[in-house]
Design brief:
Blueprint (H helix, E strand, L loop, with lengths): L2 E3 L2 E3 L1 E2 L13 E3 L5 E3 L6 E6 L6 H14 L5 E7 L3 H11 L5 E4 L5 H5 L3 E2 L4 E2 L2 E5 L5 E6 L9 H8 L1
Parallel strand pairs: 6-7, 7-8
Antiparallel strand pairs: 1-2, 3-9, 4-5, 6-11, 9-10, 11-12
Length: 161
């Protein structure tokens, strides 16, 4: 997978996920410092890997998916970043984000490695979207060509419907 950051190539750690794969397990931390694994999630899910929710493009993306989450039935949206849980919680509170769940990969870098989004040079996650169905099958994958670009919102939402 060729991914760039501001036009410069970066190295992704781990295997890239493909449509049709079983969703890889992961271990992340929620805003209360509780462990969250794939098995703790159910139904249709959208996993958004972002570098940091407190940056302009991530801010736009999370706000857009927060709006869309209110319209989606039986779909849970998780935003995964390397931000500390405290920072995620504070940012969501300040931004009025209530319809998506933020989880942190800071501790184990497990999501990043298992979903092939960990950027070796930056220690951050590449921007990517994974839609997982009720049977833990991956039904949509998008690794943004450049981390500074937004994902294709329409295609993501079409895949989850």
């Amino acid at each position: 997978m060729n991914v760039k950051f501001n036009g410069n190539p970066v190295t992704l750690v781990g295997e890239c996920v493909k449509v049709g794969d079983n969703a890889p397990d992961f271990l992340v931390v929620d805003n209360d410092l509780n462990n969250v694994k794939l098995s703790n999630t159910t139904g249709k899910r959208i996993f958004l890997a972002v570098p940091s929710i407190d940056t302009p493009v991530c801010d736009i993306e999370v706000r857009k998916f927060n709006e869309e989450a209110a319209k989606l039935k039986d779909v849970t949206i998780y935003v995964v970043s390397m931000d500390l849980p405290f920072a995620q919680s504070r940012w969501c509170g300040n931004a009025g984000i209530v319809n998506v769940k933020t989880v942190s990969d800071y501790k184990q870098k497990n999501f990043g490695k298992n979903y092939g989004t960990l950027v070796e040079e930056l220690g951050l996650l590449a921007r990517a979207v994974f839609v997982v169905d009720e049977n833990n099958k991956v039904i949509y994958v998008e690794y943004c060509e450049d981390i500074v670009n937004e994902p294709n919102y329409e295609k993501v939402l079409e895949a989850v419907k």
